[in-house]
Amino acid sequence: MGKKASKATKSKIVSAAWRLFYEQGYENTTVDEIIALSGTSKGSFYHYFDGKDALLGSLAYLFDEEYELLRTQIPPQMHTVDALCFLNRELFGMIENRVDINLLTRLYSTQLTTKGEKHLLDHNRVYYKLLRKLVLEGQEKGELTKDKSVNDIVRLYAMAERALLYDWCLCGGDYSLQDYAASVMPMFLDGLRVKRET
Questions:
Q1: For 19-43, what is each residue's pLDDT tens digit?
Q2: Are residues 64 and 18 in the same domain?
Q3: CB-based contacts of 150: which residues, under 8 Å, 6+ apart?
Q4: How far apart, in Å, are the Cα atoms of 109 and each of 72, 105, 120, 183, 188?
């Protein structure tokens, strides 16, 4: 199986799993249902995942699929701070509407206790690559401060997003994640914006 076909198969499994988790809950979803909905085989499933629990870490890659779609929707002339706010707003809207908060909470708890791979910190993810590209371009255009490195800015942005998600989970989703982030992230990112002389 080629690399592209392999990625497509894994993506089908992840998408099907998270759709079922959202629709009927994690506990009520079986591996057989995931295989059936994804149109893959049991062999393919177990090639990528040890079992249903292993899919929890794949939520980070579901977010990456959303970022792949969103990157094409950023107008080239949009200010970097506005582009970062747009990505955050759209991703958090997707999370609020398509991801069960209990699963997100479980993902965060497993990432805190795991001794193995921490999917949320994998810098090879689309998420980090896109952020690095946007921040670098923003610095080159003179829109973002050069007082901090690209990696420092990306780290701060990712940390801010994780903090917002963590708090939303901690509060049981009793407020709109998307709306709250839309008021907080611009204030945070404004500190990275190059101020123009008036």
A1: 888 788 888 899 999 999 999 999 9
A2: no
A3: 132, 135, 136, 139
A4: 32, 6, 12, 26, 26
CA nearest neighbour of 164 among 191, 190, 187, 136 = 187
Stated pTM of the model: 0.77
Q: What residue numbers bound the domain in which 21 lies?
A: 1-49
The radius of gyration of the chain's CA atoms, rounded to the nearest angstrom, is 18
> How many CB atoms are located within 10 Å of the residue 25 CB?
12
Cα atoms found within 13 Å of the Cα of residue 31, Cβ hemisphere only: 14
User: Which neighbouring-strand residues pair with 144?
Assistant: 193
What pLDDT was estimated at residue 93? 93
Residues (pLDDT < 50) of the chain are: none
Assess if residue 195 is contained within a domain. Answer: no
* Closest C-alpha among 86, 104, 91, 97 to residue 166: 104
Residue 145: Cβ within 10 Å count: 14
Instruction: Supply the pLDDT for residue 73.
Output: 94
CB-based contact 165:95 (threshold 8 Å) = yes
